[in-house]
Structures are given as C-alpha cells and as structure tokens.
Amino acid sequence: MVYIALLRGINVGGKNKIDMKMLKQTFEKAGMYDVLTYINTGNIIFSSSELSKMELSRILEEAIHNDFGLQIKVVVRSVNDVRAIINAIPDTWKNDKDMKSDVMFLWDEIDHESVLKTLVIKPNIDTVKYVPGAILWSVDKKNVTKSGMTKIIGSKLYKQVTVRNVNTARKIYELMQAQNR
C-alpha cells in the first residue's frame, strides 16, 4: 500500500532541520520502501505492507527521534485517504496570487466533523469544509487578514494539524498515484 507521511513543523523558520536524503534513509531503515520525498517540509511518500496507519506513525516517529533527536508528529494517510480529500477540494481552489487554499490534515484524535465548531469561520470571507482526515479552507488573498484562519495559529487545534496548500496536496496525490501503479 502507498502512504504519505506528513511531518509537522520541520524545516520551517530554521527550526527542526532535517535533510530529506537522510530522512529517506531513516524511512528505509524503518522498513519502508519506494521512499520518495517531496519538497523540504516533510512530505514522504512510501510503501509498506501489513501495518496500520497508527503503527506506521509510531514506528516513524520513533525512527525520527532516534536518528535526529526530534519529537516530530507524523500523520500517515493512505493513497485512498488522500484521494478522498483531493476529490473534495473544489477544482476552482488554488493557491496563487488571488486565492489562499489549504488542507489541514487532522490528527486521528480530532478527526471528526465536530472540529468545525472549534473554528472561527467568517461566512462572507471563509469557505471551510470538513472531509474525513482534513479541513479544507479557502479565502481570497485580499481577505486573508480578515479570515478566521488567522485565529487558528497558537490554538490547541493548531497543534493537532499539519497544513499543506492545495497545490502541494494535489502534487502529493499525483506522486502517490504514480507510485501506486
């Protein structure tokens, strides 16, 4: 089965620096195969068999701690999980000069539609959807400072998500599909 490991908070603002080539080796040593990294922010596509996503997360978090001395949360999603998320993103959503659109991948502990009740959503500014495994959020760039999205930073919820823009999420899925053939 093909999976994506989404690491939270690496190589951002000079903190938790991890070299992607070394991270690939860490995954391989942990028993993963067909390991592919995508950009420098902790997106690792890999294959594994006979382990649950929870077991994979635990193994990979431990391997990262052992090799890099960092406590990094790892969210693991299968190619089928990511397909459902990508299919829920409206085709018109982009991350460009006019629009900011993100996928907030949820920790399993909070992966429920009720998580929307904890958000500050501005109805005339924000478009927000829950899909199993993620919150999808889009706002016109001209309204970003007025968006409820900015209220998440520093919140308890923010510590239980890892965010990728929709362009990155779509590319991850494309790479996962190629590996799944």
TrEMBL record:
UniProt xrefs under InterPro entries: DUF1697
A Pfam family that the UniProt record links to this protein: DUF1697
Native species: Heyndrickxia sporothermodurans
Protein's name in the database: Uncharacterized protein
